Amino acid sequence: MRRFVSLVAIAMLAALPAIIFRVTGLRPNPILDSAVFGVAILAAGFLLSWGAEAAEQYISQGLILAVVALVTVLPEYAVDLYYAYQAGKAGPDSQYIHYAAANMTGANRLLVGLAWPVIVLIHWMKDRHRAIELSPSNAIEIGFLLLASVYAFVILYMGRITLVDFVVLAAIFFAYVWRVRNTPKTDNPDEAEEAGPAAALTTLPIATQWAIMIGLVIVACGVILAAAEPFAEAMVSSGRVLGINEFLLIQWLAPLASEAPAVSIAILFVLANRSGNGLTAMISDKINQWTLLVGMLPLAMSVGAGTISSLPLDARQSEEFFLTAAQSLLGIALLLRLRLSIASAALLAAMFSVQVVLAFYYRNDEARTIVTLTWLAWVYLAMALAVFSINGPRLVATLRTAFFSAGPQPDTRRNEA
To answer: What 3-state DSSP class applies to 161?
Structure first.
């Protein structure tokens, strides 16, 4: 318990400078501002994750992993929705439209291209197992992620993200939550260990546990609301000061800070012999960002504009969205066997590295960037279709389990093969 209190205190101290900056209006320079408010968002993310993690013992496994994924990624929502809100206020020609799209596509591609492989790598380093095995009930996550990824091509075809898309994507997300609501706890004794610092709360009375959990969430949400706007603006200003392409800075650096708590919780699952849960949390994280986050962008724009608005996808944004959707399909295809191997993780990481390197290499050549993104997207898509064709029967079984089975059943297999 002492360790948990110490960690909460450290997180609060880390967020304190941002609160002081926000209350006093102090803004020394964009780079320092980015660091101060970024650290606060990171600290708040950890507070959220500990609160959600502590609730795991009271909620079904599938539902709590979905909740943890949603709660820990709230910092990403705050930053991206701020950009979308400002885009609505500033008008259809605002650069904020590009910032909102950049942050959303970057966050989604970071998850599949970097976070998933990191989880597999840490798992291999810890136990020398060459793959993370998922349970049969995880077909639900894979099926709903596939559904959202297929719908992404509808958005791509229309060339904009509208409020109709928000309704459809929100329906996909809540249908997913409904499907996983009764997923049972694992029967694997190797996975019985609690995953992180919040495990210490189990020694306290239930009323005290709930009070602490609710308190962590309230404080963290307050910090995020206070820090999101200045962090988002400081990122834009930092790009100008450093001479770095603002689009790329917002696409890659900002999501690193906002996604770090979610990835850290997944790593804690791996270290606590719960690698399947860690990977499931990352898949669930991808589902909620690929549905709710994408769908809420036009909603935030409409609030900012004071009228019904949609987020247009110009040539660059269309290719970014195409690449993100194609990468999602490849990630799903590699999960059809209910496992993510070292080889699959290496492929995702290698493809991600290529796109990041080329994006920075052609950062000042918009036309070349669009051509590069297009080719990479087609490579992703071709590989995904090849893997889908090889695993046709498994695809059918996954879809049947995800959408038509009576419900998740306990998995008594060993966690690792």
So the answer is: strand
Q: Quote the CA–CA distance of 106 and 235 in Å, as a whole number.
A: 14
140 is a domain residue: yes
The backbone torsions φ and ψ at residue 341, rounded to the nearest 5 degrees and listed phi first, read -90, 170
Question: Which helix (DSSP H) or strand (DSSP E) does residue 160 occupy?
Answer: strand 160-161
Amino acid at 99: Y
275-288 helix and 139-158 helix, angle to the nearest 10 degrees: 20
Q: Which two tokens stand for residue 311?
A: 């987020």
**H or E element at residue 340:** strand 339-341
- 410 belongs to a structural domain: no
CA distance 88 to 315: 20
Cβ-defined contacts of 251-257 (< 8 Å, 24+): 251/102, 251/103, 251/105, 251/106, 251/359, 252/106, 252/110, 252/356, 254/38, 254/79, 254/103, 254/106, 255/76, 255/103, 255/106, 255/107, 255/110, 256/110, 257/38, 257/39, 257/41, 257/42, 257/75, 257/231
CATH code at position 225? 1.20.1420.30
Query: Which residues form the domain of 170?
Result: 2-403
**Structure token pair of residue 164:** 């109709």
Q: Are 83 and 258 in contact (CB under 8 A)?
A: no
In a domain, 119, yes or no: yes
pTM for the whole thing? Answer: 0.83
Alpha carbons 106 and 344: distance in angstroms, whole number: 21
Cα–Cα dist 39/33, whole Å: 10
Any residues with CB less than 8 A from the CB of 226 and at least 6 apart, and which? 18, 19, 22, 40
In order along its 417 residues, the chain shows pLDDT tens digits of 777 788 889 989 999 999 999 999 888 888 898 889 888 888 887 787 777 666 666 665 566 666 666 766 777 888 889 899 999 988 877 888 888 888 899 999 999 999 999 999 999 998 888 999 998 989 999 999 999 999 999 999 999 999 999 999 999 999 998 888 766 554 444 444 455 566 667 777 888 888 888 888 888 888 888 888 888 788 778 877 877 778 888 888 778 777 777 787 788 778 878 888 889 889 988 999 999 999 999 999 999 999 999 999 988 899 999 999 999 999 999 999 999 999 999 999 999 999 988 888 887 778 888 888 899 999 999 999 999 999 988 889 888 988 887 654 444 443 333
Q: Phi and psi (nearest 5°) for 143?
A: -65, -45
State how many domains the chain has. 1
Q: Is residue 330 part of a domain?
A: yes
Q: Give me 92's structure tokens.
A: 């259809």
